[in-house]
Design brief:
Distance between the termini: 36 Å
Oligomer: single chain
Number of strands: 25
Strand content: 25-35%
Shape: globular
């Protein structure tokens, strides 16, 4: 969320310190347990396919678990169902051999929480040789956000990622670098990677922070460079955007970026977004990455970029299918309830009870993907619904299709279908708890919902959910703590004595000044140098889980705590104050 405020910058005399809801990999993973049931009808393949768009909820996890220093419960925008599901290998057993590029495998089970309903999975399968597909050379244009908000940790993660990408590229691959801030420019023209890795590494190290965030201009130049490279490419051509996704000049609307991404894909250039930074705008990034040719990953901490590219680089740039349309045609007496696995705007009513889901692209993945849904009612016969998919093959641009009929099988329920249902429950309940907290200011109600969810996950008996147990427990602990504050959201981490260690854009505070933030609403500044040395200024403040505002002033600061440091930032005016806990008192 961005706040629009006046440009007054004096911290203590004329300014100081003042929330939003929803908007949008290697093939050696072990097969799920349900594939080893001895049934001749189950065919296991080594190729895993997943839909494009958000591939994780790591930014949300980082905030929820305080990894990026946020205090209260996070906003729900970064917690997408497609991102949550994509973090897990949910491959479903195939019921037939897939001899084409893309197939569907459907399974069903009675709903665990809603009597009379069924939970179905539409799993993705492929008959291609994944390793051969990934081996195709690539021309990669790295598009790097170097604006002021990328200073420090975000740019460090970008450079870590770029160095890892260069190390993954090899014979036949080509790479160039475009950078943008206030203006955009070709930082490194496209060159052969073989024989030039040292030069590419030096180019990465030479990227410097500069200016505001004209993402529109950067994407325009990046796509121009990628399209010009198409005639030299020996295989696929792709752009990789490294950003905190916080544009603040020129066209900043999601529609503008989405239009560029769609046009780029139509011209043979897909877009992978790598998100960085505590203030990453996951909602905007999710919208942009959900279109044709797009996927999205987030790197939350040191080392995570290297881990991501070591595991997923070959997959994230290997687009298999485009313009997928999945139709769910329920049997008589059955209707489609909810659908999970894509943003809601990609789901449409096709009439006569049929529901269609559109997916911009599908990629190779370490985790098997799919679409999941609830069906309400009982069919007259055995089948619940007919499923069909049509798609465009990414390499040949030919239209192909596949069909399957979903029904409850006598051969047992696949373990990954049970797991997916638990994850959907986690998604739905977590979003409801966050709405209870942010919209109704009911931290106790949120804590109660999360406690019940924690119990359901624990009693499900599903393996591989340790990360989800940790996430729900962390959210529950925060909600419980906030509920004990009598309805006022006052993150106690702020309370105490601080010393200013760095500042910019303010005139009435200096390095070394001492600031006390008390639990009864006082903000006390002691000047430690200059003519005002020894003076104390008393002010009152208001605080919520993201922002701090000194009452009687109009400059709003986002805040975050990392370790023993408190960061107060207003990116719009370029104001920043960094304080360190004062342990001398």
């Amino acid at each position: 969320m961005r706040c629009f405020v006046s440009s007054r910058r004096a911290l203590l005399l004329s300014a100081c310190l003042s929330l939003a809801a929803l908007p949008a990999l290697a093939q050696d993973a072990a097969p799920p347990e349900d594939e080893e049931d001895g049934s001749d009808a189950v065919i296991v393949t080594a190729t895993r396919i997943t839909q494009g768009g958000a591939q994780d909820v790591k930014h949300f996890r980082s905030i929820a678990l305080d990894e990026l220093g946020e205090a209260g419960l996070p906003q729900a925008a970064g917690f997408t169902v497609e991102g949550l599901l994509s973090e897990h290998d949910l491959v479903l057993p195939a019921k037939k051999a897939c001899t084409q590029l893309f197939c569907v495998a459907t399974h069903a089970k009675p709903s665990a929480r809603a009597p009379g309903e069924h939970f179905i999975g539409i799993g993705f399968d492929s008959g291609i040789d994944a390793e051969a597909y990934k081996a195709e050379p690539i021309s990669l244009i790295a598009l790097v956000d170097r604006s002021g908000s990328m200073s420090g940790e975000p740019m460090a993660r970008v450079k870590e990622g770029l160095h890892a990408v260069i190390d993954r590229l090899g014979e036949g691959d080509r790479m160039g670098i475009v950078i943008y801030g206030t203006t955009s420019l070709i930082h490194q023209p496209v060159i052969e990677v073989a024989g030039n890795k040292a030069a590419l590494h030096r180019a990465v190290d030479a990227i410097e922070i500069n200016g505001s965030t004209s993402m529109e201009g950067g994407m325009r130049l990046g796509y121009a460079a990628a399209l010009a490279e198409r005639e030299n490419s020996r295989g696929k051509t792709r752009m990789m955007l490294f950003t905190d996704e916080n544009p603040n000049t020129d066209n900043t609307s999601p529609e503008g970026f989405m239009a560029q991404a769609i046009e780029g894909s139509r011209n043979g250039v897909g877009l992978t977004t790598i998100g960085v930074g505590a203030h990453f705008d996951g909602a905007l990034a999710t919208q942009v990455s959900s279109v044709r040719g797009g996927n999205l990953f987030f790197v939350p901490r040191e080392g995570s970029a290297s881990e991501l590219f070591a595991k997923e680089f070959g997959n994230m740039v290997s687009e298999v299918a485009q313009d997928l349309v999945i139709s769910i045609d329920p049997a008589d007496g059955v209707k489609v309830g909810a659908i999970y696995g894509v943003p809601g705007e990609l789901i449409a009513d096709a009439g006569n009870g049929t529901v269609t889901v559109t997916i911009g692209s599908a990629f190779l993945s370490s985790n098997g993907g799919g679409i999941f849904a609830t069906l309400e009612g009982d069919p007259a016969g055995g089948a619940l619904a007919d499923i069909s998919v049509s798609y465009t093959a990414a390499t040949t641009q030919k239209r192909e299709s596949d069909t399957d009929r979903v029904a409850v099988s006598d051969e047992g329920v696949p373990a990954n279908l049970v797991k997916a249902e638990v994850l959907v429950d986690q998604y739905v309940t977590t979003r409801a708890a966050l709405a209870q907290y942010h919209e109704k200011r009911d931290a106790k109600g949120a804590a109660t919902m999360l406690a019940a969810l924690s119990d359901r996950i624990a009693s499900s008996g599903v393996a591989g959910l340790d990360g989800e147990v940790e996430l729900v427990a962390g959210l529950q602990a925060k909600a419980s703590r906030l509920a004990g504050l009598g309805g006022r959201t006052l993150p106690f981490e702020l309370f105490g004595d601080w010393k200013v260690v760095r500042h910019k854009g303010v005139t009435d505070v200096a390095r070394g000044d001492l600031i006390a933030i008390t639990d009864d609403g006082e903000f006390i500044t002691e000047r430690t140098r200059g003519p005002a040395k020894g003076d104390e200024i008393y002010q009152s403040y208001a605080v919520n889980e993201r922002q701090l505002h000194i009452e009687g002033t109009d400059l709003v600061f986002n805040y975050r705590i990392r370790g023993n440091r408190l960061f107060l930032q207003n990116a719009l005016d370029g104001v920043e104050i960094v304080m360190e806990r004062d342990t001398t008192t």
